[in-house]
């Protein structure tokens, strides 16, 4: 690596440590996914407890490192929705009490939909069991900068926390931070692992973007206050729109939901798929989405967002009132035809050696070593029929 870039990285890491008052912070110019890969690669030997609704990078990390895993299953907020609640601390404690082989737990909080788990309680349980806690807080990089947001996991006892500064703080894509709040050896291993998953010469523009946005966030508390005011105003007006549901703080206390990030606009419309709703919003409303799933869409917002942007989103949502209800697909792409043919060909009882996901990120339908059943076959066929983006490969069946 260029000496000048090395110096720049050290300077920005020291800047971040001062801003957050945090012991160890690493930069990633290759995004939060690289941070998750590095954090899991650096873990001590032993089995890893993985929340089933982690992002794909977590599953890639355990697969690449051939780690033994067990799964922690969050509850669906709405039956058949592929939208998940938080991680219940009591469930974590029950598993760790009964399975001493676990040395680490990996969770996502907030989720892409903005669902926040009780990280403080989970961290206490992990510490009592000498288990390393990794929190993918990629969607919550704004949390540390304003007290009315959910409290960041970096202040709640998590051992490793990953932030994506491009999602809510306006930094360039691939701008991320990794916080390591534990003994120096783990921090060293995370840094070594990060070099494995990142470019040999980090992008200088991304590094500068990290520095600039951190300085901006540190000095502009008023921008965070204004952002929250706009969110609350938007949510108040949203109540006037018929036929749409916006996930909100009423979910707190259900399905392990400890808090909700109101900046994640997760929207459902009765009678149509999220995929159809997303296509309408993107094509007719020119709205940028963070994902369109089977039942919902996710519209991202960020600190410093203009009021006109909120008005544009509101106007596009108003126009969804005239959308037709969902109708089953009558035409399939060649890829979907091939997928359905493969599902018909493979007999239930086979094992699958990879992951099958639904997009946006949610619990994998099947993970390595799990059995392909008739129920899974029917579920996947139904998802394809509704237009879900699913990858299935014949070579992984055994």
Mean pLDDT: 91
Shape field: globular
Distance between the termini: 43 Å
Biggest sheet: strands side by side, in what order?
A: 1-8-7-6-4-2-3
- From the coordinates shown, what is the CATH architecture of the largest domain? 3-Layer(aba) Sandwich
For the largest beta-sheet, the strand count, sense and barrel status come to: 7 strands, mixed
What portion of residues is helical?
25-40%
Task: Give a count of the beta strands, DSSP E runs of length 2 or more.
Answer: 15
Number of helices: 13
Q: How many structural domains?
A: 3
What is the H/E string?
A: HEHEHEHEEHEEHEHHHEEEHEEHHEEH
Enumerate the spans where pLDDT stays under 50 for 5 or more consecutive residues.
Answer: none
CATH superfamily of the largest domain: Type I PLP-dependent aspartate aminotransferase-like (Major domain)
At CATH level 3, the topology of the largest domain is Aspartate Aminotransferase, domain 2
The CATH C-level class name of the largest domain: Alpha Beta
């Amino acid at each position: 690596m260029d000496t000048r870039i090395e110096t720049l990285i050290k300077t920005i890491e020291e800047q971040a440590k001062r801003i957050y008052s945090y012991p160890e912070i690493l930069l990633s110019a290759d995004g939060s996914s690289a941070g998750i890969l590095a954090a899991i690669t650096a873990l001590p030997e032993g089995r890893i407890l993985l929340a089933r609704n982690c992002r794909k990078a977590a599953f890639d990390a355990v697969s690449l490192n051939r780690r033994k895993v067990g799964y922690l299953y969050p509850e669906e907020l709405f039956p058949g929705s592929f939208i998940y609640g938080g991680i219940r601390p009591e469930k974590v404690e029950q598993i760790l009490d009964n399975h001493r082989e676990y040395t680490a737990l990996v969770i996502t909080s907030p989720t892409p939909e903005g669902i926040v788990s009780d990280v403080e309680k989970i961290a206490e349980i992990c510490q009592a069991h000498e288990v390393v806690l990794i929190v993918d807080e990629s969607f919550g990089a704004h949390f540390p900068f304003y007290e009315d947001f959910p409290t960041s996991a970096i202040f709640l006892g998590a051992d490793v926390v990953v932030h994506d500064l491009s999602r809510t703080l306006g930094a360039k894509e691939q701008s991320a931070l990794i916080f390591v709040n534990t003994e120096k050896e783990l921090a060293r291993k995370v840094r070594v692992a990060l070099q494995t998953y990142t470019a040999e010469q980090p992008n200088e523009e991304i590094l500068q973007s990290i520095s600039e946005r951190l300085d901006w966030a540190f000095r502009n508390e008023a921008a965070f206050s204004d952002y929250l005011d706009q969110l609350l105003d938007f949510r108040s007006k949203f109540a006037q729109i018929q036929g749409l549901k916006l996930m909100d703080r009423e979910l707190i206390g259900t399905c392990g939901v400890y808090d909700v990030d109101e900046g994640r606009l997760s929207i459902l419309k009765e009678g149509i798929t999220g995929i159809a709703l997303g296509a309408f919003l993107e094509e007719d409303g020119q709205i940028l989405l963070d994902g369109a799933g089977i039942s919902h869409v996710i519209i991202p917002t960020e600190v410093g967002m203009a009021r006109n942007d909120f008005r544009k989103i509101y106007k596009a949502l108003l126009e969804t009132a005239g959308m037709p209800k969902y109708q089953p697909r009558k035409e399939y792409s060649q890829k979907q035809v091939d997928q359905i043919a493969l599902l018909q060909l493979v007999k239930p009882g086979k094992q699958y050696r990879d992951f099958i996901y639904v997009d946006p990120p949610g619990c994998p339908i099947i993970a390595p070593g799990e059995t392909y059943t008739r129920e899974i076959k029917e579920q996947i066929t139904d998802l394809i029929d509704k237009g879900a983006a699913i990858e299935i490969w014949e070579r992984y069946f055994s």
